[in-house]
Amino acid sequence: MSQTTQQPPTRAFFHPGGFAKLDAKPLTDTERLRWLVGMFARLQLRSLTSKLTAVSFPAGALMGAAILALLTHIPQLMEVLGDDRRVFVTDKAMPILFGMNLLTAFLQTTIWVAPVIASDVQSGALLLYFSRPLRRRDYLLARFLAATLVTWLELASAAVLLVLVQIATFGVALDGGSIAAGLMFWFMVAFAEVLVSLFVAAVISAVALGCSSLARSTNGAPLLFAGLLLGSIPLALVLGNVAGHGPLWESVNLAQGLNAVHALVMALLSPQPLPEGLLTRAIVGVAIWSGLAVGAWQLLVRLLRNPPMGKGRA
Amino acid sequence: MPTSLASLKDVSKRFGDVEALRGVSMTLPTGVVGLLGPNGAGKSTLFRLLLGLDRADTGQIQVLDLPMPDEAVRVRGLIGYMPEDDSLFPDMTATEQVVHAAQLSGVPPLDATPRAHQALDLVGLTDNRYRKASGFSLGQRQRLRLAMALCHGPQLLIVDEPTAGLDPDGRAQMLALLAEIAKQGASVLLSTHILADVEAICSYVVLMTRGQVSFAGPMARFRAASGGPSFQLRPTGDVAKLMQVFVTRGIGATLQDGDVLVQLPPDRVAELWQACADAGVGVSGLKAAEEDMASAFMRHVQNAGNLDAQRLL
């Protein structure tokens, strides 16, 4: 006697006589988080695709041209060592180069990341998310990871561009044993840049999202984030004047603080001695930014504990 | 199938000094349930608790037989929520919005698109599925939000003011849609200020005032209960004498177009027959009295001491 086993339907569909016929295998928590990160990243890129095209590529090209100009016309900023044509960026040039990179990151984070949670609050999308089977921590984590990913892509692409321009300018010797040393150096530069970029992207994204949850307005959040960055410059100057100039107070300048991290990593790769005060600036910079990031995270958690539900409601 | 939509036992919720819910106990049956109440009555707080967005200070809640908020994530997968506010992404097409909502509800990506098209067909947005929501009329936006709430096949559909701002035609279409969805097997919890909407499609009514449940029961009982006329009697004979007997027996009665509306609980119907016998009056017709919805609502709210009821009518 043959037995026939009816297989359960695997596709979800509307079924006359009953909803809730969702027989498809639901997503696991990890799949859901991965999907959320991808979706949030796409949403960020999608709404600003035009800005991305209009700002990032010309900015990158301009950055490359500026670096090229620096390397070609201001030889005192660069140092070519030995016959293997390894090129080291001196401490005078580093703040300029990485500052440009960082400026791009701050600009992009202000435009891209700061408004996202505020936008969800304003549009009522927060209610859409939270009335679905999502945990609040999933939303927060996915938003943070997506923001970091987008910022990191921007930073890393600028970093890679920087390395490519340097290689294009000075080339890589293809003869003898110098090839390995030269290539290894450039790989280390690129790797370090990318690693630093990852760290920088994470902390500035967290702070930008914190501003977003505090302002709850798509205009207010970028202004708050930009105000925080710009406000730290005069604060650093005032503190420096009151307590005496030094690397400690220079790091209160938020852009300077992260810039010092870049400079520190690059300096560690260079055979030259570390510039004076660089280590202090980097440590204090990281400490201040980490503190801000932790504070921002607390703000976000607080917002989501009692989220504003509904359009424009706070 | 769940035995009830939701069950609340002595649930209280306070926001600072405001007591949003005060010892609410009720069991909502499956079907189409209407939630009525003036502003500030606690309807939104009740929704937040049912969706697991907030925790009750005291009491126990079960939604679709699952305890809240412990099973909130699972319950939200079984519920479709159509909020009063927009919650739309203006840059996305209708299909993208519904796919997005389906995936947020855990529908696998491959299934989300066909389900989105089915949901858009169901709400009548087939021809507008590739248009952006920013260009939609209010009625189309409401339909889109309904499609987003439906796309994952919920057991319970919670709709908050679905007909607000719609013209009469749009309102009738939305109500017909909700009735159709209920016919297909989903339960619907409808919150509205428009009494006629509740009257049109709901079989069970919950009235909330000042954080408490003033009434919870079938629609017919809503019209009849607590002080309203319970029987409509058509007497043959001396009606004046019958009215006198009612007064003597302490039974409330009024004349209306030749009929007598009698206020008497159903378990005391024998007294009605006795009064007729005492008055020597025959009865050619007797039925449960029906009060119009607005009068019933006014009476219930006023019984609960709420003076703002008039604003809702």
Uncertain ranges of chain A: 1-22, 81-91, 173-181
CATH fold assignment of the largest domain in chain B: Rossmann fold
What is the topology, as strand order, of the major beta sheet of chain B?
Answer: 6-7-8-3-9-10
Portion in helices of chain B: 25-40%
What oligomeric state best describes the polypeptide chains here? Answer: heterodimer
Spatially, the strands of the biggest sheet of chain A line up as: 1-2
Largest interchain contact: A-B, 40 and 44 residues
Topology order of chain B in helix (H) and strand (E) letters: EEEHEEHEHHHEHEHEEHEHEEHEH
Question: What's the gist of this structure?
Answer:
Chain A has 314 residues and is an all-alpha fold.
Description:
The complex is a heterodimer of chains A (314) and B (313). With 314 residues, chain A is an all-alpha fold. Chain A has one domain (29-305). Helix content of chain A is 71%, strand content 3%. Chain A has a two-stranded antiparallel sheet with strand order 1-2. Residues 1-22, 81-91 and 173-181 of chain A have low confidence and may be disordered. Chain B has 313 residues and is α/β, with parallel strands linked by helices. In chain B, the strands form three sheets. Chain B has a six-stranded mixed sheet with strand order 6-7-8-3-9-10. Chain B has two domains: 6-223, 3-Layer(aba) Sandwich (Rossmann fold), CATH 3.40.50; 229-288, Alpha-Beta Plaits. Chain B is elongated, with a radius of gyration of 23 Å. The two termini of chain B are 36 Å apart. Chain B has eleven helices and 14 strands. The chains are: A mainly alpha (314), B alpha/beta (313).
List the helices and strands and how they pair.
The complex is a heterodimer of chains A (314) and B (313).
Chain A: H1 29-47, H2 49-73, E1 78-81, E2 86-89, H3 94-112, H4 115-123, H5 125-130, H6 136-170, H7 178-215, H8 220-243, H9 247-250, H10 254-269, H11 278-305
Antiparallel strand pairs in A: 1-2
Helix pairs in contact in A: 1-6, 2-3, 2-6, 3-6, 3-7, 3-10, 4-7, 6-7, 7-8, 7-10, 7-11, 10-11
Chain B: E1 6-15, E2 18-28, E3 32-36, H1 43-50, E4 58-63, E5 66-68, H2 72-78, E6 79-82, H3 94-104, H4 109-122, H5 138-150, E7 156-160, H6 168-183, E8 187-191, H7 195-201, E9 204-209, E10 212-218, H8 219-224, E11 231-236, H9 239-248, E12 252-256, E13 259-263, H10 269-279, E14 282-288, H11 293-303
Parallel strand pairs in B: 3-8, 3-9, 6-7, 7-8
Antiparallel strand pairs in B: 1-2, 1-4, 4-5, 9-10, 11-13, 11-14, 12-13
